[in-house]
Amino acid sequence: MTEQTGVILVTGASRGIGRGVALTAAKAGYAVGVNYHARADAAAEVVAEIEALGGRALALQADVADADAVEAMVDRLGEAFGPMTAIVNNAGDVARRQPLDEMPMADIERLVSVNLMGTIHGMRAATRVFKANGGGGIVNLSSEAARFGGNRISVYAATKAAVSMLTVGAARELAAHNIRVNAVSPGTILTDALAQEGEAVLDTLRQTLPMGRIGAPEEVGEAVLWLLSPAASYISGTVVPIAGGR
Ligand code: NAD
What we know:
alpha/beta, about 250 residues, 7 strands, about 50% helix, 9 helices, globular, binds nicotinamide-adenine-dinucleotide
């Protein structure tokens, strides 16, 4: 393990892409805040995996839809490891496909409050800390659905399109504060939910993808960590597709 690179918060880090980003960040030398909503056991496993690698990590419970909870979480991370230097706003409600007119309003409101408001809460809390400490890096999770609209996931796609535009606008606003803001836009990445669909569904899906395979959470993690690194020092306001050529 290298010397501490910085202090990073990854929201929704107990599984899926968030877990992949958290592990990649730990390998890059970050002390990692592993945010989770409900699965304390899964978050504790991610912390244990990072510690087994010789890294430092802390499980932090918060619903990203709750602005005060996000502010408090960022402060808890700072008390443990020092001021946060990077945030990855990954937590997201991944929509079940259903017709717009049949979707319960509670599901629609949840998509907006987690995917859009949750990202705004993370960006605001991070900006407060970064402005006070000379700068920092933000990476948001958009989606290729934001470009294609998706089919029967239009609300999800709209929240992700909003995340992409938040990224572009905030990058302009925050450049003078030494804060870079970027997003990644995954295509199809293998997570627990997708794995449960079974081999037949996965095979059909692979045939639609130019590389003939589904992406891994760690491949998203590598792109996120590169965007946060000094190697990407002149890159801000971009939305990087991670979609295997699709
Ligand atoms: P996932 O469902 O496996 O993980 C989502 C994570 O967010 C979970 O850990 C969950 O607990 C957490 N979360 C949900 N609501 C939360 C809340 N209110 N507060 C805190 N945490 C909360 O999904 P994933 O596929 O790993 O998705 C991660 C991100 O990547 C999401 O923003 C998703 O929209 C985006 N994305 C995923 C794919 C894909 O193919 N998997 C494609 C494009 C974009």
